[in-house]
Amino acid sequence: MPAVIAAFCLFFCVMAGFFSIRPVRDTVGSMMGREPLADLWFVVWIVSLMVIPLYGGLVSRFRRSVFLPWIYAFVVASLIVVGISLRDGQPSVLVGQFFWVFMSVLNLFIISVFWSFLLELFRSDQSKRLFGVIAAGGTAGALAGPLFTDFTVEMTGNSGVLFVGAGLFTGAIICQGALITIWRGISNPAALGAGHEIEARERAIGGNPFAGVWIVARSPYLLGIAMFVVLLSTASTFLYFEQLRLVEIAYPEPAARTRVFARLDWIVQSFTIVSQIFLTGRIASRLGLVVLLSMVPTAMIVGFGALAVWNTFPVLAVVFVARRFGEYAFVRPGREMLFGPLDRETKYKAKNLIDVPVYRGADALSAQVQQGVEGMGFGPQTIAAMGVGTAVLWAINGWWVGRRHDDAAGVAETSPRIVPPPVPARPI
Fold first, then answer.
1. Average pLDDT, the chain
2. Are 218 and 342 in contact (CB under 8 A)?
């Protein structure tokens, strides 16, 4: 219970900090325009590729109690610097590009780091029961953050929103310290074997900083998870650019756009938090990850089909809310559960490779594809039809990786409950 409470509070601070400032990122993106933004996705991908070996080096050389709080401290410092530069109003092109790239990489990286640590703290069977509740802490933060931005951005301006975000990430540092203290005192024989000392548990993981690439390349299961992320990213990018296009038409003022983006966010989180508390854990435990991972892409087949017929902002808003709500309530916790049976190096190095550069590489590619299709004279309905095809493949892939996980989990549950050896990256 102390670990769950600390993780809940940590995720609340992280997500409240990020989601309070994400509407500012989207507003900056709408100011830059969709075509420059599509090119900027490649910069995001390159930065993601640079982050992974750096993070792999930190994991290999430093203890988690050292580098995890410092990651959040770096975020705090960056937000303060950008917030000061935004105090004069509209940012310069260079500051706007830096902020948009920073936020796009930060989005995936800090969440991946959070779940990597939790996968080390909780057993696989515990993750099915508890990750939905812990994720609800993040959703509560993701609800509070944009609500605050919605009601205060007119008074504080975008720079004030960034300062508040920096304060929330400072709270994340405090919560991370509390969770590390709890982790030091908890014995986890399923992961480490009985009799291990605290020092052994906290020791740096070691190994090659680039090991995540080889771990993923050798494992069909991890390649399947990577493909799941690629298809998820492609569907999300198609919707994101449609959102920017339609919001730009409907709301010419930057402050009004920030409020719209914030409002969409808190509506999403209002649906999500109820589902995470009451549905996610029950679906995962009783129906398995097959249902958890395939239900959202199946719904998106219908959503993209509706956009192909009625390409208006109200329809886009409904589909966009449904996609994000489904991802936060079901897809994201399900993705994290897929890594539950894997070894510690895979949870930190291979997982972050999939979560950040693979995800952002798919963003960059799908953004260029969308711009190319529009450049050939095809309209939004064609993009929506492409989204239908992407959602079909996404649903099939979700069924496959979920089935592989559930089959392996069924075998493990019927086996004698003996302390198992470390699980390699190819267990399923």
1. 77
2. no
Does 428 reside within a domain?
no
Instruction: Give pTM, 2 decimals.
Output: 0.65
- Of 329, 349, 361, 371, the closest CA to residue 425 belongs to 349
pLDDT digits (tens, 9 = 90+) for 116-130: 777 777 776 777 777
Residues 32 and 100: beta-carbon distance below 8 Å: yes
What is the torsion angle, in degrees rounded to the nearest 10, for the CA atoms of residue 94, residue 97, residue 98 and residue 103? 160
Residue at 319: amino acid letter:
V
CATH number at residue 356: 1.20.1250.20
Q: Are 265 and 318 in contact (CB under 8 A)?
A: no
- DSSP letter for 86, please: T
Q: What is the model's pLDDT at position 239?
A: 86
Task: Quote the tokens at residue 211.
Answer: 């090991």
Measured on CA atoms in the order 251, 254, 258, 259, is the torsion positive or negative?
negative
The percent of residues in the chain predicted with pLDDT above 70, rounded, is 81
Residue 154 structural domain: 2-191+198-412
Q: For residue 424, is it within any domain? A: no
Residue with tokens 């074997």: 193
Q: What is the DSSP letter of 379?
A: -
Q: With beta carbons less than 8 A apart as the criterion, state whether 342 and 190 touch.
A: no
Indicate the DSSP class of residue 312: S
In a domain, 11, yes or no: yes
C-alpha to C-alpha distance for 147 and 66, rounded to whole angstroms: 33
Per-residue pLDDT at 418: 28
Average the pLDDT over 351-363 and give the result.
81
- Alpha-carbon 9 to chain mean position: 17
Q: Tokens 């000392």 belong to which residue?
A: 197
Say how far apart CA 255 and CA 160 lie, in whole Å. 13
Say what the pLDDT of residue 90 is. 65
111-120 average pLDDT score: 74
Residue (of 173, 171, 149, 174) closest to 159 by Cα position: 149
Contact yes or no for 165/18 (Cβ under 8 A): yes
Residue whose tokens read 């989207």 = 26
Alpha helices in 276-312 (DSSP H): 281-286, 289-309
- Could you tell me if residue 373 is inside a domain? yes
Matching residue, tokens 């952002």: 360
The tally of domains found in the chain comes to: 1
CA pair distance 20, 146, nearest whole angstrom = 5
Query: Residue 291 and residue 395: Cα distance in Å, rounded?
Result: 10
